[in-house]
């Protein structure tokens, strides 16, 4: 049920926002995910009222009951997206309708109330409108985190009757300290991320929590990220802890694991597939095994590999560490195809290149 119209969002402006001089200081080198804006967007849901009480208000800590359903049964989903300052001085989101659709898909899989897509986009627009001065200059962006959790106060295993949807925003610079570089990844043989019929395609916190032990293992081995294999055969490459994977072959083709319900349908992934096809590349969405990856890298059939996602955008993979032996991809430092696709994507996001697919959602 939906009773909310986009026009009913109210603004409860922050009574004491961060002063302009202090905000400018925080934006000099914001890093990633630690500098937050003044406001947040909120919408409530209940079975009785539907979606209601939509507003943008001061970002403050939450007070929730210890019996809130989310704390016990983990009904929670989220999204990640960015607002960019364009070359002409305007502001835009990148494919927000895709985030809105995926948010609804995640809610459906987690048996949660489905937020209408127009409400999702409106909440983002309203928050960016009031906090647009938090977008850093240069290569920075405003990282937006829409999320929703079960808020019913009830200890029983059932879908919640109440939900709280919120959006917070964070001023961000480069995801990787020191900027874009080729990373080293560890192939996890002990832990898997998701299985067929599970929640792998949903953007829910539980998927990420389950990945952290493998990520911790990767860091202990001197790697930046973990690579997960399929849960059934422990053979087929799926994705990193929070990014999709691509492989560039010597014949100029591009390969990525298919969407079979066990990996996240990344919006950056989909955008890169489109840009690659636009550039005339042959693209395969096919299974690719860890043994194939190693053999192709050693023979020179595979010349580049990269990961992609909203936060890091495109990240080259230079080395792979595995129990069956480490190997290097190409020259270990990335490559020209990865760089071209990265630059093509960023140029559209920043408004410095044509946008033939209508991906930019201008906020001016």
Give a written overview of the molecule.
This protein has 364 residues and is α+β, with helices and mostly antiparallel strands. The protein contains eight helices and 19 strands.
Layout: helices, strands, pairs:
Blueprint: E1 10-11, H1 20-26, E2 35-36, E3 39-46, E4 50-58, H2 70-73, E5 76-78, E6 81-85, E7 91-94, H3 96-109, H4 117-131, E8 141-150, E9 162-172, E10 183-188, H5 205-220, E11 225-229, E12 237-240, E13 244-249, E14 254-256, H6 267-278, E15 283-285, H7 290-299, E16 302-309, E17 313-321, E18 327-328, H8 336-349, E19 360-362
Parallel strand pairs: 1-4, 10-11, 10-17, 14-15
Antiparallel strand pairs: 2-9, 3-4, 3-9, 5-8, 6-7, 6-8, 7-19, 8-9, 11-12, 13-14, 13-16, 16-17, 17-18
Helix pairs in contact: 3-4, 6-8
Short summary of the structure?
Keywords: Amino-acid biosynthesis, Aminotransferase, Branched-chain amino acid biosynthesis, Pyridoxal phosphate, Transferase. With 364 residues, this protein is α+β, with helices and mostly antiparallel strands.
The CATH homology group name of the largest domain: Aminotransferase class 4, branched-chain amino acid transferase, N-terminal domain
**CATH architecture name of the largest domain:** 2-Layer Sandwich
- The general outline is globular
**Overall mean pLDDT:** 95
Secondary-structure element sequence?
EHEEEHEEEHHEEEHEEEEHEHEEEHE
CATH domain topology of the largest domain: D-amino Acid Aminotransferase, Chain A, domain 1
Derived structural class:
alpha+beta
Strand percentage lies at 25-35%
Integer tally of domains: 2
Q: Main β-sheet, in a few words?
A: 10 strands, mixed
Query: What's the total number of strands?
Result: 19
Instruction: Please bin the fraction of helical residues.
Output: 25-40%
Which consecutive residue ranges, at least 5 long each, have pLDDT under 50? 1-6
Distance between the termini: 31 Å
**CATH C-level class of the largest domain:** Alpha Beta
Count the helices. How many? 8
Radius of gyration: 21 Å
